[in-house]
Amino acid sequence: MSKAQFDQLLPTLEKIPEKQVSYPNIPVDVALQESEDLLVWCQSDKEKLTQSGLDWLIVKDLPVRTGACRYCQSQWQKDYRSVEEAQKEWALKSPDAYVLRNDMIHHFLHAYYKMPDLYARTQKIAEGSGHADMIQDLSDIAALGKANPQPLVAINIDLSLLDKSETTSTEMAVLLANSNGKKMEDNKLRLLRDKAFMHMKEAVDEIRRCGQYAFWKDEQRHKGYISKYNKSRKSGKTKTEQSTEGTK
Questions:
Q1: Whole-prediction pTM value?
Q2: Residue 239 — very low, low, confident or very high, per pLDDT cuts 50/70/90?
């Protein structure tokens, strides 16, 4: 259902200028639930809300906006978790990849010491630093070693390390792309989620605004048009400030 609502709303979301989009000011899962709750709460107040200037089409449109936002949130979280997992795997595997790279450079410099051309090529590979450089070094080492194996055999280097270098280079390249290639601030899924959140929030804010106006003297109905999350956060802040003031 959420996917269908997202597809329905996508043309509208794509038209929202990126410069107008801001990061959600409350947890998205909380905002989604509050939107669902508000939709149920306001149904019996239709007459007073419309008399207060609310376009009821906004209420009718709220389920679509909420569903689209829920779908975008799910998709972005899935993507975000994938990046997090790749970063954890990189942190786990990259130290060994660096050790392999350094060990192979050490072996090559010794094996090719009396061969100026191969020695110079090894020195060239050894230059530079950083993750991308390490990955390229492993690939270059494998290629150089496979093309010139005899000096390595002469010092009893296990040639299977050349295959390991090549495989490690490929694996770490993919891992680095997954962990660094999708910057959260540039992530299209996150931007789409933020647009969907903003579009949903616009409807929620308008319904709440009219509800707070219509029921400003009716505490029982008025409370349904207040964000419980923001109310509790303000209450907690007030208590903290009071506590801090008491220690001064």
A1: 0.64
A2: very low
